[in-house]
Amino acid sequence: MFYEPRNDDHGLPFNPFKACVVPRPIGWITSLSHDGIVNLAPFSCSNQLGYDPPFVFFSASGLPQEDGEPRRKDSVVNVENTGEFVFNMATYALREQVNLSSARLAPDVDEMDLCGLTKVPSTLVKPPRVGESPVNMECKYHCTLTLPANSANTVHHVVVGEVIGIHINEECITDGKVDWVKIQPLARMGYLDYTYVSQVFTMDPPRGEIRPEQIGEPTSPKQSD
Fold first, then answer.
1. Predicted confidence (pLDDT) per residue in 21-49, tens digit
2. Mean pLDDT over residues 158-169, rounded?
3. Contact assessment for residue 44 and residue 58, using Cβ atoms and an 8 Å cutoff
4. Is 155 helix (H, G, I), strand (E, B) or coil?
5. Three state DSSP letters for 91-125
């Protein structure tokens, strides 16, 4: 099948686009309002951008107001106003809390309290870390990229932050490496579907220059449970 997203002519009962870019890591973002209220929200459009220095991003869709104009989500407002946020890793064990924190709530509601999560002070920024999360990245706001939408009352705010501090639970490090199978990071698929890391394999990259006549049968990837 072929379809043009602008025409929405895929002919399927559900839009397949998000199901075609998977799995997507979930950025579980903590931020602070000017009044010191903690906001916690998951964003399935999130990832890293570069690594030296490291940058991460999360993308939030603006919600229409009564006048039809899109408004920025609380996370976007907080980060742009204070210049700080924490990118917490979502895991399978925390899936219920991740889901609950996605609810639309008033700006004065503290989602960390609502979800019964532990607020742990950060080292370099003011927003707290999710204590139950095995990896927390303290971030300094860099910029916001505004993307247009087909709907006149919708907009996408892509918030980029520089990672200035990283916390890793030492119990989640095996042989000097972050152990994803032990952590079981949560990721978003399409529709209402999720997945998590339960198996990892390793492949050695090609070494040196390779000529076409040197290419043989591919080797089987090495599995690690």
1. 999 999 999 999 999 999 999 999 999 99
2. 98
3. no
4. coil
5. EHHHHHHHHHCCCCCCCCCCHHHHCCCCEECCCCC
Domains of the chain, residue spans: 17-224
Q: Are 186 and 194 in contact (CB under 8 A)?
A: yes
Nearest to 117 by CA among 140, 143, 80, 88: 88
Q: What is the pLDDT of residues 64-114, one digit of tens each?
A: 655 556 678 999 999 999 999 999 999 999 999 999 999 989 889 999 999
Judge contact between 85 and 139, C-beta under 8 A: yes
Q: Which residues pair with 143 in a beta bridge?
A: 160
CATH architecture observed for domain 17-224 = Roll (2.30)
CB 142 within 8 A of CB 162: yes
Residue 114 dihedral angles phi and psi, to the nearest 5°: -60, -40
211 contacts: CB under 8 Å, gap ≥ 6: none
Residue 159: beta bridge partners?
Answer: 58, 144
Tokens for 217? Answer: 């049968």
Burial of 119 (0-12, 13-18, 19+ CB in 10 A): middle
Residue among 149, 124, 141 at smallest CA distance from 78: 141
